[in-house]
Amino acid sequence: MANQVYSQQFDNGLTLLAEPMDWLESAAFSLLIPSGADRDPKHLLGLSNFVCEMAQRGCGSRSSRQFIEDLELLGVDSSGSVSNAFTSYGGSMPAEKLADALTIYADVARQPHMSGEQFEDAQQVCIQEVRSHEDDLAHKAMTELRRQRYPNPYSRVSYGNLETIQQIKIDDVREHFRVFHQPQGAILSVAGKIDWPSLCAHVEQLFDDWTGSNQPIDETQAPAEPYSHIAHDSSQTHLAVSYDSVPYSADDYFQSHGAVGVLSGGMSSRLFTEVREKRGLCYAVYASCETVRTRGAVVSYAGTTTERAQETLNVLVDELLRLRKGVREEELQRLKARIKSQLIMAQESSSARSSQIAWDWYHLNRVRGLDELSSIIDALTCVTINKYLDDNPPRDFRVVTLGAKQLEIPRGIS
Amino acid sequence: MEFRRQTLDNGLEVIAETSPKAYSTAIGFFVNTGSRDETDEISGVSHFLEHMVFKGTPTRSAADVNRELDEIGSQSNAFTSEEHTVYYARVLPEYQSRASDLLSDIMRPSLRDEDFEMEKQVIIEEIAKYEDQPPFGAFEKCMRAHFGEHPLGRSVLGTAETVGSLTSEQMRSYFEQRYSPGNIVLVASGNVDFEQLVSDAQRNCGAWTPFHVARVTPRANEHSEFQVIKKDTAAQEYVVQITNGPAADDDDRYAARLMATIIGDDTGSRLFWELIDTGRAEFASISPYEFQGTGMLMTYLACRPEDTAECLAQIRNVYEHAQHSGVADEELLRAKSKICSDLVRHNESPARRLFSVGNNWLQRNSYRTVRETVENYQAVTIDEVNAVLSKYPLTVGTTVAVGPLAEITT
User: Fold this and answer.
1) Rounded to two decimals, what is the model's pTM?
2) B24/A344 CB distance under 8 A
3) With 70 as the cut, is the pLDDT of residue A1 above it?
4) Residues 6 or more apart whose Cβ sits within 8 Å of residue B309
5) Contact (Cβ atoms closer than 8 angstroms) between residue B334 and residue B268
6) Alpha-carbon span B408 to B126, nearest angstrom
7) 3-class DSSP state of A146
C-alpha cells in the first residue's frame, strides 16, 4: 500500500499536496480556503457561504454561464461549499483535464467578479438553502447538538438564517472576500493520475503571486444547555447524543476511533445489534467521531417513532456508557478487518484520497500514508483501547430530542 | 477487462466483468423481483423479505450473518426497487469465496417467525423515517396516480398497515414463487477469480430447485392528473411530475438521457438556469427511469410554497419551448461530455460497475463495456434528441404536490 505524497509550500502560505495514483484514469482536487462560517460576523451569519456562491457566478474571463459550461465541456464534476472552517472547491475529472480545471478554479479563488448583477439571485439561492434545512429533521437535531457541544463560532452552520442573509449587502460580500479569501493557510490537494513536476509548475504559475494573510477569530460564546427538546409534529422522534472525546490530531485519536468502531459502522457493531437487531427500535442508528478544530466529540443519532423514543434513548445511552467497560478481542478483530479493507479500497477513488490528504494536512500539518495508517491499526489492541477508555470514559454528555414528546434523560449522563 | 458468463444446470446465471488489477471484488445476487410483482395483500413484501434475508439460515443465526460479513471486512448491503432486489458485498479479493459462500447461504433464508415479528418493527420505523423526510411520500403518491392499476403503481416500502398485517406464511409463499435460480443472477466485478466463483456457486447454489417465474410487463396508460396534498409541518412545497419515457429495451433511452441532462440536470441545464441559478427554487430537475415494458421521466421541484404556481409555469415554459424548438448542438456536446466523463470515472470502482453490469443483464440480458456505452452516447444525433421530445411530451403527465399548500392554481 506504499503511497507517495508530495508537498510544496509556497511563500504566500498556500500548500500544494499531491498523491499520484497511476492506476487510475481520473484526477481529483480539493481547494480549501480558510474562510468558513467561523469567520462570519455575528450579525451577518452565512456571509462566507454567500461569498462562495458569488465566487462561482463569473470569474476571470468567464461569465457565470461560461464558468459552468466550460467545466461541463471538460467533464468536471465540480462542487463548492462552506464548512465551519473552510470554503471548499472541488472537482473530479478525466486526468488529462486537471490542468484546465485548476486554471478555472484559480480564477474562482482569486478573481471572482462579485458582480452586483448576480447579487439578488445569489441571495435567493442562499435563502433556499436555509429553507431546505428546515425540512431536514435529523439535520436539525444534529445542528442543535453541535450548538450544545462547541463554543460559538465553532458550532455554526454555514448557511446562516433568513434574517442575517437578508441583511447582507454586496459590499459585505466583496469586503469579506477581500479579507478572508487569502492564500495563508489554504490547501490545494490533488490525487489521481498526475505528474508531480508539471502539476507543481502549473500550480506555481497559477497561485505563486497570490498574496494576503488571514485574520484571527474571536472565540466568545459558551455552548448551550446540555439537554434540549425541539417540539415538532413528526412521525419519528430524532435523538442526538454526544460525549466529549479527542480530536483527530490527538496521539490517542485512533484509540477513540477504535472504540467508536466497535459501537457503530459494521453489521455486527453494538448499536446496530442492540438497538435495531435485538429490539427493532429503529431503522437508522449510528455513532461517529467528529473533530471541530482542536475539539473532538463522539456524536450519535437514532430516529424512532414517538411511543418507542424513550426506550430507544435509554438503550442508546446504555450502550454508550457500556463502552466504559471496554471492548472485546473479537470485536476488535472485526473492526480491524473493516478498516484495513477501507484503506485498501480508498485507492480506487481519487476524490476520496484528495479530500483525505487535505484533511490530514489541516489537522496534522503532514499526511499519513496508507502504510502508516495500516501500522497504526495493526498496533491497536484491546489493552490500548481499554486503557484509553479507562482514562477517557464517555462523559460530559449532550442530548437533543426533536419530535412530538419531550423525553427523560437517562440516569448516568445527566 | 473481460466479460465471463456461465449458467448452472438449475438456471442460475453467473456473470462477471473481471479486472485483475482492481483492489477490490464486488459480488451481488440480483433477483428479478420487486414491488411490481406484489399484490395488494402483500404490498411491501419484497422489501421486507430483503431485510429478512439477513436474518439467518438453517446453519446461521442473524448475528452469525452480521458477524461474518464484518469478519471479512465487507461493505455489504441490499436494496429493493420496483423491479429488482439486490444483495451485495464489496471485499478484498482474498475474501471472494467467503463472501460468495455467505451471500449464497443467505439467499435461502429460514424466515423464522420471531425474526419476522422483530424485523417488522424495523420496517415500520423505516416507513416512519421516510414520512418525515422530503418529499414526504410525493414520489410514491405520484407513481400510484400515474400508473394507477399498473403494477409499477405499487409502493416499494408498502404502508405501516400492509406491512403490519403481513404474515410469515405470505412471505414464504412469495419467496417460493420468486426466488427461483432462473430468476436470479450472480454478478461479480473487479478482481474476480471467475473459475472459483463458478465452482463456489455450483457447490452453494447448484441444489436450488428451479421453478417457473413470470412477470407481466404491460405498457402504462397515460394519465393526466393533478393532486395537492396538504402537510402543515413542511416548510417547502415538493412537487413530483411523471410523464412517459422510454422502456429499458427502447433504443431511444440514450437520447432520452441526453435530453434530460440538457433540459433538467441539477447543474448547467435549462431548468438550472431558469429556476436554480436565480434562486426561484431550491431544486428542479428531470430524470429518466426505465422499467421493463415502460418508462418515465420524473420532474422534481422543491420551492417556497408561495412560488409553486410560478415555478410550475416556468417549468412548463421550458418544456414547451424545448418541444417546439428542440435543443442546440452545443448543449448536446456538453451533455455528452458530462455523461461520458461520469461513466469513465465510475469505471474505476468495481462496486459501481457491479450495479451497471447487473442491471444491464437483468433489464436487457446483455453486457456492455464502458467504452461501448460511451460510444452509444457519442453516436446520438440532435435529431434523435428532438425526436424523443416529440415522442415523450414532457407537458402531459401526472403531478403530485406535498407541502403547506391546500391548492395550487396553474
Assistant:
1) 0.96
2) yes
3) no
4) B408, B409, B410
5) yes
6) 30
7) helix
Selected for mutation to probe chain A from B47, B70, B102 (highest A CB count within 10 Å) is B70
3-state secondary structure of A300: strand
The answer to whether the A6-207 and A227-403 domains have the same CATH topology is yes
H-helix or E-strand spanning residue A291: strand A285-292
- Test mutation, B133, B336, B345, chain A, max A CBs within 10 A: B345
Closest in B70, B119, B123 to A338, CB measured: B70
Rounded to a whole number of angstroms, the distance from the CA of A73 to the nearest CA of chain B is 5
Domain boundaries, chain A: 6-207, 227-403
Nearest to B26 by CA among B99, B86, B83: B99
Chain B CB contacts of A27 below 8 Å:
none
CATH code reported for the domain at A6-207: 3.30.830.10
Q: Strand, coil or helix: what is A290? A: strand
Whether the CB of B396 is below 8 Å from some CB of chain A: the reply is no
* Structure confidence at residue A152 (pLDDT): 87
In sequence order, the β-bridge partners of residue A17 are A7, A189
Pick the CATH number of A227-403 from 3.30.830.10, 3.40.50.720, 3.40.50.300, 1.10.287.130: 3.30.830.10
Q: List the pLDDT tens digit at each of the 410 positions of chain B.
A: 899 999 999 999 999 999 998 999 999 999 999 999 999 999 999 999 999 999 999 999 999 999 999 999 999 999 999 999 999 999 999 999 999 999 999 999 999 999 999 999 999 999 999 999 999 999 999 999 999 989 999 999 999 999 999 999 999 999 999 999 999 999 999 999 999 999 999 999 999 999 999 998 887 776 778 999 999 999 999 999 999 999 999 999 999 999 999 999 999 999 999 999 999 999 999 999 999 999 999 999 999 999 999 999 999 999 999 999 999 999 999 999 999 999 988 889 999 999 999 999 999 999 999 999 999 999 999 999 999 999 999 998 999 999 999 999 87
Cα A77 from Cα A92, distance rounded (Å): 5
- Nearest-angstrom CA–CA distance, A354 and A60: 25
Q: Chain A neighbours among B 253-312 (CB < 8 Å)?
A: 267-268, 273, 276-283, 302-304
- By three-state DSSP, how is residue A101 classified? helix
Q: CB A123 to CB B279 under 8 A?
A: yes
Task: Summarize pLDDT for B398-407 with one digit per residue, the tens.
Answer: 999 999 999 9
Cell of B293: 415494458
Chain B residue numbers touching A128 (CB-CB < 8 A): 279, 281-282, 303-304
HEC assignment per residue over chain B = CEEEEEECCCCCEEEEEECCCCCCEEEEEEECCCHHHCCHHHCCHHHHHHHHHHHEECCEEHHHHHHHHHHCCCEEEEEECCCCEEEEEEECHHHHHHHHHHHHHHCCCCCCHHHHHHHHHHHHHHHHHHHCCCCCCHHHHHHHHHHCCCHHHCCCCCCHHHHHCCCHHHHHHHHHHHCCHHHEEEEEEECCCHHHHHHHHHHHHCCCCCCCCCCCCCCCCCCCEEEEEECCCCCCEEEEEEEEECCCCCCCHHHHHHHHHHHHCCCCCHHHHHHHCCCCCCEEEEEEEECCCCEEEEEEEEECHHHHHHHHHHHHHHHHHHHHHCCCHHHHHHHHHHHHHHHHHHCCCHHHHHHHHHHHHHHHCCCCCHHHHHHHHHCCCHHHHHHHHHHCCCCCEEEEEEECCCCCCC
A338 contact B CB<8A? yes
Interface test with A, best of B55, B341, B346, B347 (most A CBs within 10 A): B341
Interface of A with B in 237-256 (CB under 8 A): 238
